[in-house]
Amino acid sequence: MTVPTGRDDVMSIRTADDVVRVRQEVRSRALEIGLGLVDQTKIVTAASELARNTLDYGGGGEVRIEIVQNGGRRGVRLTFEDNGPGIADIELAMKDGYSSGKGLGLGLSGARRLSNEFSIESTPGVGTRIVIARWT
Amino acid sequence: MDRIPILKMGDALLITIQVDIHDQIAIALENDLTQKIATTGARGVLIDISSLEIVDSFIGRMLDNIAAVSRMLDAETVVVGMQPAVAITLVELGLGLTGVKTALNVERGMLLIQNRLGALGRDRAHRP
User: Fold this and answer.
1) For a 10 Å CB count at each end of chain A, is N or C smaller?
2) pLDDT in tens, A24-82
3) Nearest chain B CA: its distance from A27 CA (Å)
4) What topology does CATH give the domain B6-126?
5) Domain ranges of chain B
6) Min CA distance, A62 vs chain B (Å)?
7) Which residues make beta-bridge pairs with B80?
């Protein structure tokens, strides 16, 4: 079972500066639970992709950053939420190279590869919620 | 607005990226760099990313763009100093930076550019 431990932070994602702040916060939480350098880099990069998606496609939103525990392992769990236009075809959006905008189309599929856990829910006209986690 | 300095080193231009880059800085850099290539006739561009702790698809796209635009202006781009954890992450992200040459450090990047210039010089010398 996965249980949240300790404090959790909700950060708003409204500007490009917020994307930078999210990266810094995720890095510091990853360090805190003792993730190795490569794992830190992966989760921070995934966070950067998703935060930018939230900003560019979701019209802004927020991320909840939690430290979670599962048996002897600790993890960083990130929940990105926006009230943007949503994604009509998630399967298509998850494909490498698919992009609805100016990006390279690697945001979603790349973030999934860089995470140990990945889930996405989206309703057109309502918004999108993406949860990722990386474990020690 | 912050700008990234562009230094001239022989036939090459050196850019050291030390801060988190935003869209505005990236656009300014592309403009400044193309101007500088045109005015100096530089044949190579070295982009030192050794200070960057992550490279996401946004920065990756910027590097690809710079390389493509520089190539149009007859200058070769070499990205130098990538941290090992960044390299591992980039490949997993799916970003091979296939349009960009890389070198371990500035010195070896400079050598790549000089070798290219040497090869160009030889080609010219052989022309009747």
Assistant:
1) N
2) 999 999 999 999 999 999 999 999 999 999 999 999 999 999 999 998 899 999 999 99
3) 10
4) Transcription Regulator spoIIAA (3.30.750)
5) 6-126
6) 19
7) B48, B103
Cβ contact A94:A38 at 8 Å: no
Residue B89 contacts residue A114 (beta carbons within 8 Å): yes
By Cβ distance, the residue of B20, B22, B57 closest to A106 is B57
Which of B2, B54, B64, B97 to probe the A interface (max A CBs under 10 A)? B54
Sorted by sequence, the CB contacts under 8 Å of residue A65 that are 6+ apart come out as: A8, A9, A10, A11, A22, A25, A26, A29, A76, A77, A78
Q: Which residues make beta-bridge pairs with A12? A: A62
Instruction: Name which of A23, A104, A110 is nearest B54 (Cβ-Cβ).
Output: A23
Give the tens place of pLDDT for each residue, B37-90.
999 999 999 999 999 999 998 889 889 999 999 999 999 999 999 999 999 999
Domain residue spans in chain A?
Answer: 3-135
Per the CB < 8 Å rule, is A52 touching B58? Answer: yes
CATH architecture group of domain A3-135: 2-Layer Sandwich (3.30)
The answer to whether A38 contacts B93, with C-beta atoms less than 8 Å apart, is no
